[in-house]
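Re-running 3-oxoacid CoA-transferase subunit B to confirm reproducibility after the cluster update. Everything else is unchanged from the original entry.
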Amino acid sequence: MINPIQEQIAKRAAEEVQDGQIINLGIGIPTLVAKYVDNNNVFFHTENGMLGVVGVDEEDVDPNIVNAGKMPVGEAIGSSFFNSAESFGMIRGGHVDVAILGVLQVDEQARIANWAVPGKNIIGVGGAMDLLIGAKKVIVTMSHTSKDGKSKILKNCTFPITSTRSVDTIITELAVFKSVKGQLHLVELMPGVTLEQVQKSTEASFVNALK
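Result of re-run:
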């Protein structure tokens, strides 16, 4: 079932993609980004061992070709396969230009929590720690608040943080933030959203950098 909020966030994230980049897409909203990238000279990477990921129609699904979230994917012309060690070598070696990650929380310094909820069993950290260290740019796609309306952009994360590295860009259904010298800057409002809505829904302090 299509979630229009997730689609909106993914579409905005696609605008950050530039020609010739190698891009790793995380689980959740990031997997939707590829459908909005209108550029044949962009190469999608998945840490389980494939470069050249594309979408796939249901009738063409090969159960052996999946992304890191175990979702079926297709092969672009010229795509390549490799083992996980080589894939993480690409990440750690700085060969991934952009990582687009889904997260649970972000703090005031743009550090993220995306791998553990105390008391709950979830998938785990996957490649997030490595991507935060190795990717040249990190973009976060997330809902601005939790289901009970509480801010997910916090003064301090209440879940374990994934890395001490700050992410570069945060995109929600309400706004776009950039991290500048360890501080959040509000640079864009989503269509129909007011500054007051963002202020009310954001626990973390931020600089109003709207033009």
